[in-house]
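Q: What would this complex look like in 3D?
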Amino acid sequence: DGGITQSPKYLFRKEGQNVTLSCEQNLNHDAMYWYRQDPGQGLRLIYYSQIVNDFQKGDIAEGYSVSREKKESFPLTVTSAQKNPTAFYLCASSPQSGRGEKLFFGSGTQLSVL
Amino acid sequence: EDKVVQSPLSLVVHEGDTVTLNCSYEVTNFRSLLWYKQEKKAPTFLFMLTSSGIEKKSGRLSSILDKKELFSILNITATQTGDSAIYLCAVQGAQKLVFGQGTRLTINP
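A: Here is my prediction, written as structure tokens for the whole assembly.
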């Protein structure tokens, strides 16, 4: 079955620690996205990538980093510089970016700080 | 700055009622408006609207776009407890998809 797989479902971070959230898709989509969702708020864009080896900052990129070495994979690292990382993180993909096409979402990762 | 505003933020109704959810936007180079339903984790796609005045319908759900007044509505008739969810509106601009805050809909039996 085609889709987007995020792992882990739950993740705990200690003070000063970097953690990496995984996102893999087998839909052959060019564009991939990372969103953050806080309670009572909508989805806010962290980073997005339109093609392999290229990515752009979204609205709240500070304290996060990404890579896009393969078309299928778009991991997100939450660095120690992100002071309030507790949130629900959603990865998504679309055939292309900026064309108004619908996004396909993964099941998300809930990140909490210990 | 691109902006999408949904209202109400929260709505509680009884099973069988009809509800209308609102989404207004200010986006540069509008491409499309999308509605998603988020029950637990992953949002699921409901509708994509690109043209004004053309209603999209799927069962008890329907949606319409007004590009002159810059808003969309999502209607749900004869609501069921399974309709309880967060409904997200998103608008595709020149570069990225901008989401609203979501409307949390609760259907009581």
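A: To summarize the key features: Chain B touches chain A through 25 residues (CB under 8 Å). The first strand of chain B starts at residue 3 and ends at 7.
Q: Very helpful, thank you.
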